[in-house]
Amino acid sequence: MRSMKRLLVLAPAMVLLAEPALANRVFVSNEKGNDVTVLDSETLEVIGTYPVGNRPRGITISPDGTELYVCASDDNLVRVFDPNTMEEMHTLPSGPDPELFVLHPSGNPLYIANEDDNLVTVVDVKSKQVLAEIPVGVEPEGMGVSPDGKIVINTSETTNMAHFIDTDTFEIVANVLVDSRPRFAEFNHDGTKLYVSAEIGGTISVIDPATQEITKKITFEVPGVLPEAIQPVGVRVTNDGKKVFVALGPSNRVAVIDGETDEVKDYLLVGQRVWQMAFTPDEKYLFTTNGNSNDVSVIDVAAEEVIKSVQVGQQPWGVVVAPN
Amino acid sequence: MFKGIIGLLVGASALAGAALAQQPQPEMQLIRAAVLRVDEERLPPISRLDLPVEDQGFAGARLAIEDNDTTGRFMGQDFEAVEVIASPDTAGAELDKLLAEGIQFVVLLADDRTTLALADQAGDRAMLLNARARGDNLRGADCRFNTIHVAPSHAMLADGLAQFLMWKNWPDWLLVTGSHPEDEALAAAYRRAAAKFGARIVEERVFEDTGGARSTDSGHVQVQAQMPVFTQRAPDYDVLIATDESDVFAPYLPYLTWDPRPVAGSAGLVPRSWHPAMEAWGGMQFQNRFERLANRPIREEDYQAWLALRIVGEAATRTQSADPAELRAFILSPQFDVAGFKGQKLTVRDWDHQVRQPILLTTGLLTTSVSPQDQYLHQTSALDTLGIDRPETECSF
User: Fold this and answer.
1) Where is the Leucine-binding protein domain (chain B) (predicted)?
2) For A225, which residue in chain B has the nearest alpha carbon?
3) Quick check: A137 contacting B, CB < 8 Å?
4) Where does CATH 3.40.50.2300 sit in chain B?
5) ipTM over 0.90
6) N or C, fewer C-beta in 10 Å, chain A?
7) pLDDT at B358
8) Which uninterrupted H or E stretch holds A118?
9) Residues with pLDDT less than 70, chain B
10) What is the DSSP string of B167-180?
């Protein structure tokens, strides 16, 4: 009886979606192609490619899945799309040269790194107003937000710091010096660890957000790959905190790290110049953007194996998976 | 004579910023440096696009001070760089003045001879950061412990180009050398590169500098006749390599060789430390920052002066010290590295104090390639396939 009931409830939804309930849309920004490639997370096929403005890089989606945000770096704004139709709904002011951004866990506001202006811009996605501009270090890039939404992290690539920004006061409350060219900041899901990648330094700094101290530096070594080619960029952590994936740029590898010991377990061979990554909501798959081979690698998260690569547009940069 | 202090005001105004409002800062540490540019009397360049600019080198230094100060405002550090223009005759006295003021980091924009003389004059009183001179002797027999070579050497530039030409499968070179000593020094670097990477120099020719004005009204008419004649009856070759440090003839060669062959070296495909259209590895933001500050495209000497002061800034950030002795020791330690928009960390060779760095191979408008090329491997760093490696160095400190 119970299963019958659930079927009845599900049925209308399935009709509406007209596709398998498990499939999610995967959105890949193609930096050079000026478009977004949309994939189906189950069939791993390309659904379509849609123009999104000039030099799209950072890409994210609202928690309810109704708004897709794209940093159109050369247009100096954020473009907002309907994820289902890929029609542009409106734009948001972003400050100059937006590269990466992060949404507050509640879905509002949006924190944007302005790489050219040493600023983090805070934008209300509903009122489309700029709430604050926060001066940070030189070439702000990586953006992370704590699970409770109280702290936003910005990394500045030439200053080599992770700046801790209080989301209530918009003020910097701490600065942590990390290795050269910090690219990305990612909290684990209980907020007890912050992972900051350093592209040129070749390391991940594991930071205790409570004390703002670096508790460990993760280094990488791939046999047969020049150390200079190992350049950590994107970082993703599974919900249970047990697996950390790090995109290693031109070494064409993704490192798999044990989230408890923070030791490297394995390196997975992906496409060329692997940059950013995104999980499906069920964490079955992890998608990686490979900028120099114009494809996306699909990693089976449980098996820690690359199962497929899918050709997308020119120089894929960012990726996000719809939550529903 | 022109002298100015930059950086102090930037640092001071940043102090008032929101970031520091609720963090009482300790006393600001001051890190002082100077940029000493020694301008020689010389003829104007062949192309007016290469005319010297008043702030050449200094503009790069100003950007470095801005970048250092932005970091410094989080670290309680303030940077300044005094700018001095001298002639070869006054350079020594100007250096003495800077040293007397207690400045212990001097970025030097001077030719080989003056660089060496000033290094000897400074002794252990200062660290010099060479941001112009390319002579291999300065990194070899005439090396000095107090000098960090931020500018790439002739050998690094020649090796960077040679690797690309071998990848291109153009191993036969016609070497055309100018008649000045520095042209011959650069030619020696290409001979060495040919031997190192398996290229052949099929013939060498010398282009005599007969003096006179560089550009004249309708001068191109004569040039169009002269260059094909100069390059005719050469043995079969793949590429002409010109060594013309004095800017006498090389830019005339492309499209005017007798045989239809590409030109490289001092014209055509030119190896450089930096190029104003380089956009990879975050270069776009760097170019934007520079152009906003200087209102012109960047030049190699700006990049090199920028990198020199970033080296000092990076050492101050990492050591959290303003003590020149501590900064110098850190810069020379194996722990030191700095990012310079070239896709990998830049470090200092301990055997000759040359900064390891990729070499850009550039045409007029763009970067064609960046060396080292992938197929050239090395047991410690691929960057050490460029220039004089540890086993072959003639430097002993």
Assistant:
1) 58-362
2) B377
3) yes
4) 3-152+275-357, 155-272
5) no
6) N
7) 98
8) none
9) 1-26, 213-218
10) HTT--EEEEEEESS
Nearest to A159 among B70, B282, B337 (CB): B70
pLDDT reported for residue B379:
87
Tokens of B156: 């690094």
pLDDT digits (tens, 9 = 90+) for A130-180: 999 999 999 999 999 999 999 999 999 999 999 999 999 999 999 999 999
Q: CB-based contact (8 Å) between A67 and chain B? A: no
**B contact residues 258-287, partner A, Cβ 8 Å cutoff:** 282, 285
Contacts of A160 in chain B (CB under 8 A): 71, 317, 339
pLDDT digits (tens, 9 = 90+) for A39-61: 999 999 999 999 999 999 999 99
Helix (H, G, I), strand (E, B) or coil at A252: coil
C-alpha A50/C-alpha A44 separation (Å) is 17
More confident residue, A15 or A256: A256
Whether residues A226 and B382 touch (CB distance < 8 A) is answered with yes
Q: What radius of gyration do chain B's Cα atoms show?
A: 22
Q: Kindly determine whether residue A139 and residue B382, on different chains, have CB atoms separated by under 8 Å.
A: no
Predicted confidence at residue B214, as pLDDT, reads 67
Q: B residues 98-157 near A, CB within 8 Å?
A: none
**For A184, phi and psi rounded to 5 degrees?**
-155, 145
Q: Which residues contact B38 (CB under 8 A, 6 or more apart)?
A: B86, B87, B88, B91, B108, B109, B110, B111, B114
CA distance B94 to chain A (A): 32
Most A CBs within 10 Å: which of B65, B345, B379, as the mutation test of the A interface?
A: B345
pLDDT score of B1 = 41
CB B99, CB B126: distance < 8 Å: yes
Which chain A residues are Cβ-neighbours of B22 within 8 angstroms?
171, 173
Tokens of A126: 């509903």
Q: How far is A283 from chain B (nearest CA, A)?
A: 31
pLDDT at A95: 83
| 3 state SS of B372 | coil
Q: Measured between beta carbons, which residues in chain A are less than 8 angstroms from residue B67?
A: 138, 158-159
pLDDT of amino acid B44: 86
* Amino acid occupying residue A4: M
Residues A158 and B286: their CA atoms lie apart, in Å, by 10
> Which pLDDT does position B20 carry in this prediction?
43
The CA-atom distances, in angstroms, between A299 and each of A209, A289, A307 are 29, 11, 6
Partner-chain residue, chosen from A136, A177, A231, that has the shortest CB–CB distance to B317: A177
Q: pLDDT category, A117, cuts 50, 70, 90?
A: confident
Q: Domain B3-152+275-357 class?
A: alpha beta
Cα–Cα distance, A235 to A251 (Å, whole number): 15
Alpha carbons within 13 A on the beta-carbon side of B380 = 11
Tokens at B91, concatenated: 């350079």
Lowest mean pLDDT among A13-17, A175-179, A218-222, B363-367: A13-17
CATH of segment(s) B155-272: 3.40.50.2300
Inter-chain residue contact B345 with A202, CB threshold 8 Å: yes
- A175 vs B contacts (CB less than 8 Å): 74-75
